Amino acid sequence: MPEIDRQEDPPASPLVHYVAPLLIVLAVGALFLLGKPGQPPPSKGGSTDQAVKVGRDYYVLVTIMEFHPRKVGGDKWDVGGSAPDLYYKIQWQGRTVFDTENDVAEDTLIGKWFGLGADVSITDIGKILMPSGKRLSPRNAIKAALIAVDPDGLLVIRSYDEDAVGDDAAGNCALRIADLRTGDNVFYINKRGRATRDATQVARNRGGLKRLILRVVDASLPVEKLVGAFR
């Protein structure tokens, strides 16, 4: 039986040995960034974006409040036309449970607040002495209101313009606690003075409070995650 004339395959180009591993690395990286099939992409800004649960405890903090150039009614904020000096109060069950009277955002139409009393890492907590002489702990490092969720509970946020003669009301809104979600909740004030998540409903020329961001954090999280959520 005659032998079949077999030809050997030509040797692979040396370039293949370099390109193939690179392609594999890029493919794995793409899967890592995009996530597994059927799974939603990771949320932005550290927000878990889950509905709050009745009976659970949460920390809440207004991180940003934006105001119109004038008060409700059209008056200037301050004599001379300067921007307001802003602070706010959070009321729950008819009582003030948190305020920023000692952390006023001066001469601005956008006030910003942070949820930690000091910019420290979790390893520093317990080592730093506060001005009062007490040691910094997770409990006194977090600057936010602690509330519980009930089906009909309301969170009332009242903002003020600090003034030497007397502080002026700058705007307020009421939020149904059971409708909140963990992470950052963005609300806009409509022409009726009510909070809405719909940015297209914001009142353009109403004056006073225009927008706010309320951060909601599950109080049962480990200390490391609590500190991270308020950074």
- CATH fold label: Immunoglobulin-like
Give the SSE string: HEEEEHEEEEEEH
Q: What number of structural domains do the residues give?
A: 1
What low-confidence regions span 5 or more consecutive residues with pLDDT below 50?
Answer: 1-10, 15-47
- Under the CATH scheme, which class? Mainly Beta
**Beginning-to-end CA distance, first to last residue:** 82 Å
Shape: globular
Rg over CA atoms, rounded to whole Å, is 27 Å
Query: Please, what is the oligomeric state?
Result: single chain
Q: Which structural class best describes the helix and strand composition?
A: alpha+beta
Characterization of the model:
- The chain starts with 13 loop residues before the first helix and ends with a helix.
- Mean pLDDT is 79; it is low at 1-10 and 15-47.
- It has 231 residues and is of the alpha+beta class.
- It has three helices and ten strands; from the N terminus they run αββββαββββββα.
- Strands 1, 4, 5, 8, 9 and 10 form a six-stranded antiparallel sheet that branches.
- It has a single domain (57-229), classed as Immunoglobulin-like, CATH 2.60.40.150.
- 14% of the residues lie in helices and 29% in strands.
- The radius of gyration is 27 Å and the shape is globular.
Q: What's the short story on this structure?
A:
It contains three helices and ten strands; from the N terminus they run H-E-E-E-E-H-E-E-E-E-E-E-H.
